TrEMBL record:
This is Glycoside hydrolase. It comes from Sphingobacterium multivorum. One of its GO terms (molecular function) is hydrolase activity. Keywords: Hydrolase.
Length: 312
């Protein structure tokens, strides 16, 4: 094949390619979209959003939970909005809006390609992390005992029976300790996270939970729930679980409770005056030791509260 023939063949090939692809039709040409939804919504720079926005297409609402911090200003928000394909939104994505003027609500209009429009109400739900601050430990309380239906259960302060604990580092040394919680961020799933410091207080001591009567037993696994020193925390509001993570990576789950009275059954209750960290314990029934301190504190502890009071 000479060069002239090759060039002619190549030119014919290019013409064929352009003809094939040039004649391909746009399947959406001439079809106008009637979609007029907000598909996604975020608060934009400067805001910590708790989880993804909840879009209710039937109701025409979008709900956004936002963490309230020192610098949070809901009067100057530049949201990032994703609307339906080929639709427009007004005010436009990135435009500054004032959520305070409408009591944390703002209306957007989404207009479809066909020209039809729909009003959408965006509702901001301000969220405050309640655990932040410094708390003084005011009490350590146990609910324990085999056979509570037979009178074997009781709610007792750990410091109410000093003779069963070490003299120098029993539970009483915890009562000058303090716990400080700080916020570091929010996970993509909406859990708040931060750091904590469990300070040993003026005496510089943490309790060593040893049951001293015979049989002498180490019960730190039950009562050393709040780690010593520094650690991290994670809070899941969907199931009311606070996770405390020690420096060594070990963790424990609890609930952070406010004032109220907890019904424990069998005519037993626990009243919380300020706040408390509540832990579920998993002791074992011992019918041979029922009604004894050994049974309540060592064998069958059921629930444990670290009572605290927040500093002003």
């Amino acid at each position: 094949m000479n060069l002239k023939t090759y060039k002619a063949g190549f030119a014919a090939y290019l013409i064929l390619v352009f003809t094939i692809f040039g004649c391909k039709k746009d399947p959406y040409k001439g079809v106008e979209s009637n979609e007029k939804s907000i598909e996604n919504f975020s608060m934009g720079t400067g805001f910590t959003q708790i989880g993804a926005a909840v879009v209710d297409r039937a109701a025409g609402t979008v709900k956004v939970k936002v963490l309230v911090e020192d610098n949070t200003d809901f009067s100057k928000v530049k949201p990032v909005i994703q609307q339906s394909y080929r639709a427009t939104v007004s005010p436009a994505s990135g435009s500054e809006v004032n959520f305070l003027a409408g009591n944390y609500k703002y209306n957007y209009t989404v207009t479809a390609e066909t020209g039809e429009s729909r009003e959408w109400e965006v509702i901001v739900e301000p969220f405050t992390e309640t655990i932040l601050g410094t708390y003084d430990i005011t009490g350590l309380v146990l609910y324990g005992g085999t056979g509570p239906e037979y009178g074997g259960g009781a709610v007792l302060s750990l410091t109410s029976k000093p003779w069963i604990w070490p003299v120098s580092d029993g539970p009483q040394v915890e009562l000058d300790n303090s716990i400080t919680f700080k916020l570091t961020g929010v996970t993509p799933t909406g859990k708040t996270t931060g750091t904590f410091v469990n300070d040993a207080g003026a005496d510089g001591k943490y309790a060593n939970f040893i049951y001293t009567p015979d049989p002498k037993t180490d019960v730190n696994k039950f009562y050393r729930k709040i780690p010593k020193g520094e650690g991290k925390w994670e809070r899941d509001y969907t199931n009311d679980i606070l996770t405390l993570i020690a420096a060594d990576g070990s963790s424990v789950n609890c609930s952070f409770l406010g004032p109220g009275t907890e019904d424990l059954g069998n005519k037993q209750t626990k009243t919380i005056v300020n706040n408390a960290f509540a832990f579920s314990l998993n002791g074992n029934d011992d019918w041979s030791a029922i009604y004894t301190d050994y049974d309540k504190f060592v064998k069958k502890p059921r629930r444990y509260w670290v009572e605290v009071k927040k500093r002003n």
